[in-house]
Each structure stands twice: as structure tokens, then as C-alpha cells.
Amino acid sequence: MTNTSDNTSDKRISESDQALTLWYRSGLRFTCTGCGACCTGTGRVWLSEEEVIEMAERLDIVVDEFVSQSVDREAGRWALREDPQTGDCTFLQGGRCTAYKARPRQCRTFPWWPSTLESQATWAEAKRVCEGIDHSESTLVPLSEIQSELRQERLGRAKWGRS
Ligand code: SF4
Ligand code: SF4
Asked: Crossing angle for the helix pair 63-70 and 49-58, nearest 10 degrees?
């Protein structure tokens, strides 16, 4: 019993120590403008099988039909289909997401990804694509919210390869 209690307390201390050293511990400024830039060009939107089914249900499409119209299988994983010429997500029409309410987790958690939060340099790189970062009307997102999004994204990524 004592050991369990000590371990928990050590873990709490270690997590809070970690938070103190994070470069974004004071929060980051971001509000999505809906510009659609993150839906263009290179980079795939990966989904777990569970998300493929959920997205089809939210769009009110039979799963097989949704897969054949909008999803690709690549290297053992599911991904939203892209325009072969531009690399843009096929749900992006006229600069807007036509599946916004049904969009998968990877779209919802951007820009709170491990790769964008790795350092100030990677955050600055994300800013070159995303006008919502440090936008004049953007709000300050606190560390607790960033970490919660990051956790969700990490959990989701762990399911990508499972089908
Ligand atoms: S589903 Fe919507 S938000 Fe996600 S990449 Fe495609 S267009 Fe963008
Ligand atoms: S690039 Fe940024 S501001 Fe534009 S839609 Fe994507 S998350 Fe929102």
C-alpha cells in the first residue's frame, strides 16, 4: 500500500515538473479561422477503423460506400482520400470542409500534435501553414487544454494501425 501511494505521488510530481519545463507552459495563442489551409497539400489524415465507421455514420452513408468513395488503405492504415494532383483532402470544397461536423480526430486536434508541439521551431513552422496560430483575434489556449488535446491525439494515433 505504501509503495503504491509513493509511486502515485512521484508520478504526480514528475508530471508537474515536466509541465514546468515545457516551452508552451504559459499556453499558446490559437483560434481556427476555418481557412482550410491545413487540409491542402502533403500529409495524410489517418483514421482508425472505429473512426471510419463513426465518420460514415455521421455522414449518414453506408460504411462500404464511404470507404469506396472517400477512404484509402495505405501501408496497413486507413486514410482520407486526397486529390491525386494537389494532395488536398477530397472533403475540402471551395476552401471549406464539407464534412466538418464528422471530421476525424486528427483534424479536430490540429495544431495540438506531437510534431507541431515538439519545439518552438516546429510551432513556427506550423504557423506558416496555419493562420489561426498567433492570429490577432486568437485566444490564449491554456496548458491544461493543450495537454488534453495532445493526449487525445496520442491515444488516437495508437489505434491507426489496428483494423
Ligand atoms: S476532413 Fe475536413 S478538416 Fe479534415 S482534412 Fe478533410 S477537409 Fe480538412
Ligand atoms: S490552417 Fe489553421 S486556421 Fe486554417 S483551418 Fe486549419 S487549423 Fe483552422
From this structure: 100
Domain ranges of the chain: 24-157
**Residue among 28, 33, 109 whose CB has most ligand 2 atoms within 8 A, to mutate:** 33
What pLDDT is stored for residue 157 in this prediction? 85
Beta-bridge mates of residue 133:
30
- Backbone phi, psi, residue 142, to 5°: -75, 160
pLDDT score of 15 more than 80: no
- 107 pocket-lining for ligand 1 (C-beta < 6 Å): yes
* Closest listed residue to residue 154, CA positions, set 101, 103, 112: 112
For ligand 1, the distance from its centroid to the CA atom of residue 96, given in whole angstroms, is: 8
Q: Which ligand is nearest to the CA of 104?
A: 1
